[in-house]
Structure formats: structure tokens, C-alpha cells
Amino acid sequence: MPVTVAPDLQAIVDRIAAEMAGREERGKVADYIPGLARVDPKHFGIAVATHDGRMFAAGDADAAFSIQSVSKVFALTIALGKVGDALWKRVGREPSGNAFNSIVQLEAEQGIPRNPFINAGAIVVSDVVLAGHAPKEAIGEILRFVRDLAGDDGIVIDDEVAQGEADTGFRNAALANYMRSFGNIHHPVDQVLGVYFHQCALAMSCRQLARAGRFLMHEGQHPDTGFNIVSPMRARRINALMMLCGHYDGSGEFAFRVGIPGKSGVGGGILCVVPGIASIAVWSPGLNERGNSTLGSLALERLAAATGWSVFNQREPG
Ligand code: GLU
């Protein structure tokens, strides 16, 4: 169905939030660290930032949550800014078809991770962001970047979550060491992981996250300043990676049901980008069997159906 009429977005997000509030089946909250395990599964938030500068929000859209792997989008953007397309010599661009923290594929592929959104790929990205910096500076750069994108200095890193990641991150340490043995990690593993764990621990609300994703619907331009964060081509490519690799092993299912580029995290957040139209953040901490937010995915399915925003729809030009 081509989209020709502007939908009543506030009514749509209100209706979605009301439906989600009544849902019993919410999935399971990530429990590998206390900072995530204690989050109440009843939360649901949604925020939609539109291309014309408006914001539509409902539910717990202002509650901060751990964005976890959604941060991989921002770290990738920084790394591309630093080394450009040379990044693709060290990280692939294909869906993995394996668990997000799988080590098996790395052996077969000589320490080159399949894509920047599985853990191994994100750890290489952290290594790139770390270059020329002390770890604290690299972490500060990521935080400043996200604050600038969102236009909100209130965004923080949750130190307890970062510590929890470090205390339990044995598999990430294995991945990093393994890649170092292939020469694909250039800095000390503990420093690289320090950067990675802190970016995962960014705490943001749906409203802040939707604002931070706006450059990806604006062909790479910061909507508040007009400066290019990335080129239009790079924004398109980041969106393509989100579509193909953004939901772990459930990326095909998400494209099938929702049809919008998105990146999810185990904190229950999902950032979605409808190019030229909207940047969307949803949050509900209960996860499905693939590790993606159960209600967040359903809410996006409802939103895509109500708006016709699947990128596989044909649109009228202009
Ligand atoms: N900090 C988590 C890990 O590296 C990220 C999980 C995620 O959101 O995918 O295990």
C-alpha cells in the first residue's frame, strides 16, 4: 500500500502503548548481570522522531534503560569516521546466521568477524575507536558523540552495568583474545573490552535514543546543526547493515514482520530508522528466544502496519 496520507502518529503510538500494557506474554528479562536482571518486565516505551522535527511518544518513553548492543550503531559510525572503508578489511558485512557471541565462525574465517553488530565485530570496532586514545578518552568520545546526536547532555553510562559486563564477560574476552591471535585486535585486550563494556552500558530513554538515531533518517546529516555526521552513502550502508544484521539470529524474521532497519539490544531496546521519514526507539525488557525485545518487536510490527513504513512498500515520490 503506497503511503500518501500522513498518519495520526500520536493516536497510533498511544494505541500501541495501550495494547502492550495489556499483554501478558513479555518474554524473559536478561539476567546475566544484576543491573539488567532487576529491571521490571512491565515497562514499555515508544518514541518516534519524525523528519520534520516532531516527536511522538507514549508509555515509559522517558525512562532510561541499558541500550546494550544498540550502541554498536554509534560505535560503528565513529569507527567509520576514523578509518573509513578500511574498516571493511577487518570486519565483514554479511549476516552471521550464528549466535551473536559465537566463536566457531571466527575460526573458519581467520579472525575476521562477519559483521560489526555481532560481538566479535563490535569488539574490533572498539579497537578502532580506541586507536590513539587512552580507554577513558575513547569512552568519553562515544558518550559525547551520543549526547551530541541526541542534543542531550543528560545521557550517562551506568557504571554498575559496565562493571557487571566486565565481571561476566568471559566469552567476550575469549573472542577478543582469539582475534588478537589473528592480528585483528591491535590494542591490549583489557583496554578494548573496557571500551566495549562501557559503550554497552550507555543508559538512554526511548526519546533520547530516537533523537540520537535521527542522522540516519536524514541522509547522515545532524538535523539540529546541518553538519554531516556521515555521508549519505554511509548512512544508507549503516541502515542496510541494521536491516541485515541488527537482530542477531532473528534479523530475517524482523525484516519479514516489520521491514524497517533496526538494531536491538539485550536491555530490550530497539532503534529503527525509516529513511527520510522517522527514527524510532522502543523499549520493553522482556526478550524472545532470539534475544530481541518481545513487545518491542510486536510494537514495531504494529507501527509498520499502521503507517505503511516498511521500506519494502512502494512510496509516492516527494
Ligand atoms: N553486553 C552484551 C555482551 O556483549 C551485549 C549484549 C547485547 O545487547 O547483544 O554480551
UniProtKB/TrEMBL annotation:
GO biological process terms held by the UniProt record: glutamate biosynthetic process; L-glutamine catabolic process
Pfam families cross-referenced by the UniProt entry: Glutaminase
Recorded catalytic activity of this chain's protein: L-glutamine + H2O = L-glutamate + NH4(+)
EC number: 3.5.1.2
Keywords from the named record: Acetylation, Hydrolase
GO molecular function: glutaminase activity
Taxonomy, superkingdom: Bacteria
Gene3D superfamilies reported in the protein's UniProt record: DD-peptidase/beta-lactamase superfamily (3.40.710.10)
InterPro entries recorded: Beta-lactam/transpept-like, Glutaminase
Sequence positions that bind substrate: 69, 119, 165, 172, 196, 248, 266
Quaternary organization: Homotetramer.
Family affiliation: Belongs to the glutaminase family.
NCBIfam families for the chain: Gln_ase, PRK00971.1-1, PRK00971.1-2
The protein's name: Glutaminase
Annotated source species: Rhizorhabdus histidinilytica
